[in-house]
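User: Predict structure, ligand zinc ion.
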Amino acid sequence: MKKWVVLLLLAVLIGNSYMQRQQKEGDAGRMEGDAGNPTVLAAEKNGNRRSIELSEAQTYGGNLILVNSAHPVREEGVLPDIVALAAHPELTEGYGLLEADTRLSAAVAERFGAMIEAAAEDGVTHFRISSGYRDMEEQRRMYEAKGADYALPPGRSEHNTGLSLDVGSMLGEMGSSPEGEWLIRHAAEHGFILRYPKDKTEITGIQYEPWHFRYVGLPHSMIIEEHGLALEEYAAFLRKKGIIQAEANGERYEIQVVAVPGHATAHVPADAEVELSGDNQGGVIVTSRLK
Ligand SMILES: [Zn+2]
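Assistant: Predicted complex:
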């Protein structure tokens, strides 16, 4: 298995005044457009840029949204391609389903399948999905049945987005099984993160869950792993860094997070392929795949 390496090649350091503005939640400074944004001015020196208009609705959806008790999922945060996995045998090769009616985003299931295929090459083959997408009604029933210690209220669970799934091993406890150990080592190479790690329980507010994986996509999963971050910490990390470049899977990326108070403009490398995701905290993370 090839080992991917993420390199933070460049961190454009940004002016103190901008950082202070960004760090103060609700500060009036965040309400400005980014025409005078030092990160943009610095980046423009690096070559041709084009503008992308961003709207507030985009802060609520995408692979990088933070969903927890303080940041409920909005309508825009539910992936539009939720499917019943059992009806798509091409998406469920190489692993089992604990429940026949398990649903998930088709795109996320495709990435998960590719990861399971890579695990099989390493001889690790006993994966089973025990939970995928839950709609608000299912989440409500679970919350009412299990209580606040074991379930999250509707809208506060990542399972309500289609981006997350619980993965088990048919060989035993996930934490100590070959499946659990393989995923801890390799999930980030495939765009997934262990969402509730042992050493982040105070930040996530959730106990260690060796079974709960969340899709965030490359190169974000690699950066999150490299820097030992919880998803709660990632958007703030990006805000502090300004514009960063990262390398994953042989591709080079530029990443920036833009505060979108109603409306904003992102300036991206002119010929880059751009992917947008809200952070569900008032910003849009702009990922440009560099040519
Ligand atoms: Zn879960």
